[in-house]
Amino acid sequence: MNTFYYASPVGILEIKSTDDHITQLLFKDSAGTSSETITQVMKECISQLDEYFSGSRQNFSLPLAPEGTHFQQSVWKALQTIPYGQTISYKQLAEKVGNPKACRAVGNANGKNPIAIIIPCHRVIAGDNSLGGYAGGLDTKTTLLRLEGDTRF
């Protein structure tokens, strides 16, 4: 496993990868020690994050390999269909995975997303149009949504 600490506009992000896939992108309070070797997929991830934060990239095109249950994988796949600059509710996300009564389970899977930003869990909000929660904190969620053009928050 390779690790790189990326200083983003929303704080330190820990990127983990195999030689061929991004496996994690997590919010951290401080940077640790990056791997001596930075893989090509990690270099591409860093480049795409730079483009995203500069406003020139709306969609990520990276090979991803998040680890999770079949249900979590289905939720994370559905998250990747939410267009840049748009949000959906937890109920709408549950409907996307074919289980409209599983709002709470969908919310839990959303919260366990191991590849933040790239798998855009920040685009899911509560049914009353409030922010809900976010692993990176509500200020980070607000910043990401505003970066994508959503000025409601």
Task: Label this structure with key terms.
5 strands; alpha+beta; 2 domains; single chain; Arc Repressor Mutant, subunit A
Explain what you see.
By secondary structure, this protein is α+β, with helices and mostly antiparallel strands. It folds into two domains: 2-54, no CATH class; 70-147, Arc Repressor Mutant, subunit A (Orthogonal Bundle), CATH 1.10.10.10. Helix content is 33%, strand content 16%. It contains five helices and five strands. The strands form two sheets. It has a three-stranded antiparallel sheet, covered by helices on one side. A two-stranded parallel ribbon has the order 4-5. Strand 2 (11-17) and strand 3 form a beta hairpin. Helix 3 (90-96) crosses helix 4. The radius of gyration is 15 Å and the shape is globular. It starts with a strand and ends in a 6-residue tail after the last helix. The model has no long low-confidence stretch (mean pLDDT 96).
Write down the domain tally: 2
CATH superfamily of the largest domain: Winged helix-like DNA-binding domain superfamily/Winged helix DNA-binding domain
User: What top-tier CATH class of the largest domain fits best?
Assistant: Mainly Alpha
Secondary-structure element pattern, one letter each: EEEHHEHHEH
Number of helices: 5
Specify the structural class.
alpha+beta
Largest sheet: 3 strands, antiparallel
The helix content, as a percent range, equals 25-40%
